[in-house]
Design a protein that fits this description.
heterodimer; A: alpha+beta; Immunoglobulin-like; 2 domains; five-stranded mixed beta sheet; 18 helices; B: alpha+beta; five-stranded antiparallel beta sheet; two-stranded antiparallel ribbon; 7 strands; 33% helix; flat
Chain lengths: 467, 212
């Protein structure tokens, strides 16, 4: 156990992790920098993660600052993340980045602070206990003249990052397993269709492939459980890492998850060993000590330069910030609403219109069998043989009212068979089955199945019955 | 083959018996052990609680609970605060030009849309009413609606995917497409009023009334 946590490790894999983490969160900070006043300052509209209304007396609600100090702080965050990336005063930069990310993040739940922000905070904190600035860094360049070897890191911060990654996967798997709609693919489908976190074209395409959705959902849980178990096996470490990279690249291409995928790709570098780095990048000089010796600190000049550069960047940030600090009030423009829209809004106070009923239904499927959980109709939807049962399964959206569901089967000769029932608001699937066994009751030919809700037609599906 | 790293680990592990460490190194070592133990304990504690479906309501739990993908919407929505002025005109109070941050697949969702808890919608509306009345004191806001424009998520599909998914080969029909647009996927949406309230002349809201 001692060796597991306290063995000396090369700083090069950690340096890769530092660079990746710095770059990802630098991007995130730069993207939000123009909106700093709006998101975090008293001149804007902070939306705290833990508002005092819900968390009275909490210590997790930092005070928003004035626009000036907010921009200064955000500019310092950008500088600190640049410094983390290039490894300049690495430990100080990580602490500064950690503190400001936490401060600003807690002020904006809606636009800033997500679970990937929390993972980032863990990474920054744990990296600050390593010597991740010991390779591929300004710090390493500066101290090269002072000593002949590279200092090693204790393994434990890296081990804790590995634990973090594993906990993230296990937590994700537990969340999904607990959701009944996950295994049948519906959770993934609606997530891909979501216009905030959902997919681009590839994600939308996937959302129209119900079988692929089920496989992808089950595959995700399997991966999230398998990774924590198998990554420790030396023979499976690399395959699992490749699988994890593929998994996160797939997530990045099918969903709009902000920087989540890239944060996880960075965190996965905690599982990269020195020998992997040697293999990929080569080993100009061994990262291990050639001899023992005293270790000098980076020069005071570096610290002063760092502080001066931070000051310069903050000044430039405050000067360049175009949010017009203090001019928000005078700039606010309120657009008039056209008459049609205002009439529509007021009309919504009356009960729902007929067209609304179509949209309570996400899909209506036909098939010759039902899935074991009763949430999918499987098999051919348009061709049936004598002796089969035509199953219909309708998936409803979440916010539907209680509905009177009526299924009407119209035979080729125009005769109708009806089946009606009340569907509670909490039920998400409506199903029905009609046996196509009796020749006199269900003659061969073209059929229509009409679905009505509260008396309104919402879907018609056709199928052909052959002998 | 024993590589250089393994050799170093053995030498180093041997040095961890304590005899070769200075007092300062021992203190650092002890603090590191405390930190490791605390981190592992917290991770384990919150994993177990999460497994039991009993995530701690305390903020600290947020930093150790990995519950990504906890929920999904089946509708997309955009939130507006609409003010009715004394002169009978309707004004879009939220979002307004001061809210420039956007998110989402199309980069058009404001923070009011992202915050599904709707914790700050009323507060931001009051803020906007004050700003509006400060510059339009001759026609102040007297009534306010917090409204939501919403549509089912199936309408987020691009037309060609929508047609492929909702096409019935027997009836040759694309379901739930707008007949007014010759079969194109309708960009239809609906409105619902979430809250409404009278507004005093000084911009104060008398009482919010949630819409049924």
């Amino acid at each position: 156990m001692k060796a597991f946590f306290f063995a000396p490790k090369s700083p090069r894999p950690l340096a890769l992790l530092r660079i990746a983490t710095g770059m990802v969160f630098l991007y995130d900070a730069v993207v939000r920098w123009p909106f700093a006043v709006e998101l975090y300052s008293t001149d804007g509209l902070p939306m705290p993660v833990f508002p005092s209304e819900l968390f009275p007396g909490t210590h997790f609600a930092p005070l928003p600052l004035s626009a000036f100090w907010t921009v200064a702080l955000h500019s310092l965050l950008v500088f600190a993340l640049v410094s983390v990336t290039i490894g300049w005063r690495t430990r100080t930069s990580l602490w500064v980045a950690f503190a400001i990310s936490l401060w600003l993040g807690l002020l904006d739940q809606a636009g800033t602070f997500k679970k990937y922000s929390v993972i980032g905070l863990h990474l920054m904190l744990l990296l600050s206990f390593t010597r991740c600035g010991g390779a591929w860094s300004v710090d390493a360049l500066l101290i090269r003249g002072h000593r002949q070897f590279t200092r090693l890191s204790f393994a434990w911060p890296r081990r804790l990052i590995q634990v973090l990654v594993i906990a993230v996967y296990l937590g994700g798997a537990m969340t999904k397993i607990r959701l009944p709609d996950f295994a049948n693919g519906d959770l993934l489908m609606f997530s891909l269709l979501d216009d905030q976190w959902g997919g681009g074209y590839l994600g939308h395409w996937l959302s129209t492939r119900p079988n692929l959705l089920i496989l992808a959902s089950i595959g995700t849980v399997l991966f999230e459980i398998a990774f924590p178990l198998l990554i420790w096996n030396p023979h499976l470490r690399r395959p699992m890492l490749v699988l994890a990279v593929a998994f996160h690249l797939m997530l990045a291409t099918t969903m709009h998850l902000g920087i989540f995928s890239f944060v996880m790709l960075a965190a996965l570098l905690a599982f990269v060993e020195e020998r992997d780095v040697n293999r990929l990048i080569g080993n100009g000089k061994s990262a291990f000590p050639k001899h023992a010796g005293s270790v000098g600190r980076t020069s005071a000049l570096s610290a002063v330069s760092w502080a001066l550069a931070a000051g310069l960047l903050i000044s430039a940030g405050v000067a360049l910030h175009n949010d017009g600090m203090g001019t928000q009030h005078s700039r606010t423009v309120f657009e008039p609403i056209d008459e049609e829209t205002s009439v529509d809004i007021l009309a919504s106070l009356t009960p729902a219109q007929e067209g609304r009923y179509d949209d309570y239904f996400h899909r209506v499927e036909l098939g010759n069998r039902l899935s074991s959980d009763g949430t999918r109709a499987l098999g051919s939807a348009s061709r049936f043989q004598r002796g089969m049962t035509v199953h219909a399964c309708a998936r409803l959206i979440q916010n539907h009212p209680p509905l009177q569901i009526e299924w009407t089967l119209i035979r080729p000769d125009g005769e109708k068979v009806q089946f009606a029932y009340q569907l509670a608001a909490s039920v998400s699937h409506a199903t029905v089955g009609f046996a196509l066994t009796e020749r006199d009751q269900t003659p061969a030919g073209e059929y229509r199945l009409i679905l009505r809700a509260d008396g309104y037609d919402v879907a018609t599906r056709g199928f052909i019955l052959r002998e | 083959m024993v590589n250089e790293e393994q050799q170093t680990i053995c030498t180093f592990a041997a040095s961890l018996n304590g005899s070769n460490m200075s007092r300062f190194q021992r203190l650092r070592h002890f603090i590191a052990i405390l930190f490791i133990g605390s981190y592992l304990l917290l991770t384990g504690f919150f994993l177990v609680r999460h497994a039991l479906g009993d995530s701690l309501a305390h903020p600290i739990g947020y930093f150790w609970t990995w519950d990504m993908f906890p929920n999904y919407p089946t509708e997309s929505a955009r939130r507006w605060a609409v003010g009715e002025t004394a002169g009978g005109a309707y004004v879009q109070l939220l979002p307004n030009s001061a809210h420039r941050f956007r998110w989402g697949v199309h980069g058009d969702a404001t923070r009011f849309d992202i915050d599904r808890r709707q914790l700050f919608f009323r507060q931001a509306t009051l803020h906007a009413i004050k700003r509006h009345n400060a510059t339009a004191s001759d026609d102040p806001i007297r009534f306010v609606y917090l409204a939501e424009q919403y549509w089912p998520e199936k309408l987020n599909l691009p037309d060609e995917l929508y047609h492929g998914f909702y096409y019935d080969e027997v009836t040759k029909k694309v379901y739930w497409a707008s007949p007014a647009n010759a079969g194109e996927v309708s960009k239809r949406f609906y409105w619902r009023v979430l809250d409404e309230a009278d507004v005093e002349t000084d911009g104060r809201v008398i009482a919010w009334e949630p819409s049924p």
